[in-house]
């Protein structure tokens, strides 16, 4: 198990076709924090040019202890090199995970950087500004002996687009479950992911003004995204993006009842994927206490409701009708 301590829930092992990887040493329930770790080589957001990156990485590697340097040099490097500066930078590019408040920086981590990629991962990486550490959380139940995986890609696009990015950036062909689906299922998944992407673009294009002027349409888009994500194994990552959009749309239009329900769902997702000590969880806890504290509250009052107007009984007795109310379906005039 190499350099890793014994109390860990994973071991570092050879994984056929992938080099090394992390394997669960026991069952890991969804929501478990698997890793919480500080980087040992970093490049902050401000360092923009390749030359600046080379120097920054080179200087840090020289300053590492003998043990750390050995660990760093044992990491994967998919880029060709002719001298140590290029070699260190190649290791950095192959392994760095996003860090910093805007996720524009990169950090190399002793443990987390040994995690291989899957397009439908069972874990997720997150830079926790409160801890100044990277965390890895299980986003599904992981069985003992199963490989722990994260996604190296910013978004889950269709199979062809994923393959192109992975080949270009990491030089491998992905054989994860999503990429190995039978032809028909793969086509269906691609169709869903293409539509999610198209809806993302439409939501982005609508901008801040759209939150009010196209509120009904935008909420419909997010509703559709949630339904599409629910068909995918990697749904949790997609849902953590969709629900915050729903929170914004509802609250920007004065709908505190729906805003509260959406915020509760976003909070539950963030708790599992990021942990209770993350800034996002703190933000959503505040919104759940008082949705009117959202910065967009008051942009419009066209859907004005109070938190007390949530039809609690409906939620318990008729879940489908509750969803119709929540997403303002069926003429989309229901208050
Ligand atoms: C950050 S490293 C992951 C740990 C690495 N396997 C090791 O031995 O240190 C990224 C590299 O691992 C390999 N890799 C990661 N995920 C893979 C996958 N799903 N299939 C094949 N190779 C993979 C690729 O070579 C990639 O460039």
UniProtKB/TrEMBL annotation:
Domain SET: from-to ranges: 7-153
One Pfam family matching this protein: SET
SUPFAM superfamilies xrefs: SET domain (SSF82199)
InterPro entries in UniProt: SET_dom (IPR001214), SET_dom_sf (IPR046341), SET_domain_protein (IPR053185), TPR-like_helical_dom_sf (IPR011990)
UniProt-listed Gene3D superfamilies: SET domain, Tetratricopeptide repeat domain
UniProt name for this protein: SET domain-containing protein
Species assigned in the record: Ophiobolus disseminans
